[in-house]
Amino acid sequence: MRFPAEWEPQSAVLVAWPHAGTDWAARLGEVEDTYIALVAAITRFQQAWICVADDDLQTYAEARLRSARVDMERVRFVPFDYDDTWLRDSGPIVLRDGDGFRVLDFHFTAWGGKFEAGRDDRLVESLAAQGVFGDAPRQRIDFALEGGGIETDGAGTLLTTWRCLHERHPRAGRADLEAKLRGWLAQERVLWLDHGYLEGDDTDAHIDTLARFAPGDAIVFQACDDPGDPHHAELQAMAAEIAALRTADGRPYRLYPLPWAAPIIDQDRRLAASYANFLIVNGAVLMPAYGDPADDRAATVLADAFPGREIVQVPCRPLIWQNGSLHCITMQIPLGLGG
Hints:
The two termini are about 20 Å apart. The protein has helices at about 30-40, 55-65, 85-90, 110-115, 125-130, 160-170, 175-185, 230-245, 295-305, and strands at about 10-15, 45-50, 75-80, 95, 100-105, 140-145, 150, 155-160, 190-195, 210-215, 220, 255-260, 265, 270, 280, 285-290, 310-315, 330-335. It is about 25% helix and about 25% strand. It has a single domain (about 10-335), classed as L-arginine/glycine Amidinotransferase, Chain A (5-stranded Propeller), CATH 3.75.10. The chain is globular and about 50 Å long. By secondary structure, the chain is an alpha/beta fold.
């Protein structure tokens, strides 16, 4: 078995449409605009599979997408009554298993029991029962793990943060957690970061807000070059940790630091505007944009890290109001998986 990297060929990207019964209710119009822009970007390159809570929501979402001239031939709606839309964390983690696939269904606890997640924890089971994954077997694993908390290079190396895994499993030691991750995720080694956080992030330092693999033994990471910012010392320490990491054959990684956006404050609360929360699709990288001058600089960095891919900016300022961004609301589906 093998855990494919995100830049490998994909069938689709899975999302869930926001509605008034989710945490987006207070700012639903703004968030819907972001989802429309996201689905429009995805369908330029591949299919978008959209979870909808009921038939009325599907009709509404379809009308909004059609009015935005989205390619509906590349849209598939999947019924499921979810708690919220953070599918990176409640969605499937897919391994390649020989010529087929294995769909891992980890226990989703809404980031350590911070919110209600009973329906979201049944998402993968429901999708499998509807035949979304074809005949690929689903493996339920009674262990709290979110997709945003792990990052793989597709060649046997996993990158994660100690802060997140330790919060979920405070009685487990690092060696125990590493053995479990290596076994379930078919990894040869686990690289841990002990530093790095973002104000406004309630995931306990998910790796996908901080550092990501790129092809050719590279790491793209969120930097902070403002000594007056409260993140500066911690992200500088994280940058030093990343610089000290080595590839499986002992070489330093090629490093791509992302620029730092100016603080975004909402009702006296700092929001987590990370450029590391990008999504890789077939032929492109979809990048969160925050209406900041650093957006274009971040796009340049990502173009260097992912040569040959188009960099598409998606307006994500509404998303960080609920403490996540572009990667957090999506989950890629590897090419060949799907019924």
